[in-house]
Design a protein that fits this description.
two-stranded antiparallel sheet, mainly alpha
Length: 198
Amino acid sequence: MAILKRGISGEPVRRLQAKLGVTADGSFGPATEEALEAYQEKSGLEVDGIAGPDTFTHMGLAELVLLTRGTSGEAVKKLQMSLGLTADGKFGPGTEKAVREFQTKNGLAADGIAGPATLSKMSAFQSIITPDVLSYSRVSQGAVDAWHAATKAASSVAGAAISVAPPVIPAAPEVKIATADMGGTRSIWDTIKGVFGK
């Protein structure tokens, strides 16, 4: 499931932190969790300290919306309605199958995950998944490799009080990629380390 919570690090965390006005170091710690909970409470969202699709959409971080099996909420309902399914807001096997079929019909990689490339093909999401948002959801392969190298170096300094900051990946408006399928680009979620086990 593509969510951000305590213990995760990566470029999506850095973008979330920038929106929350906390130090954008790319590591989701207690200060990020506290700021997120305050934002959720102020915005009338579920206060759980976890950023998922509904929080991303509310914050204007549509490039981080990634709907996968196990995801739930209003974004999933909108996806299900777009696919002609019963909109219960729970992304299960039936929704995954319908997403795969939609992706196949639209010439997309049929992985059953509704990210910006898939959502941009649905009229219900076109107002939030614009071509710019689609490009912001991608980073270069070099940026992914640099992020993982920096975090690996930081974690290999066992017991030392040395901290290696992850590379700064350009903020969303500076990323200029014409399509999600251009060679050499990866999903912004490929920079994630932590709970996802990378």
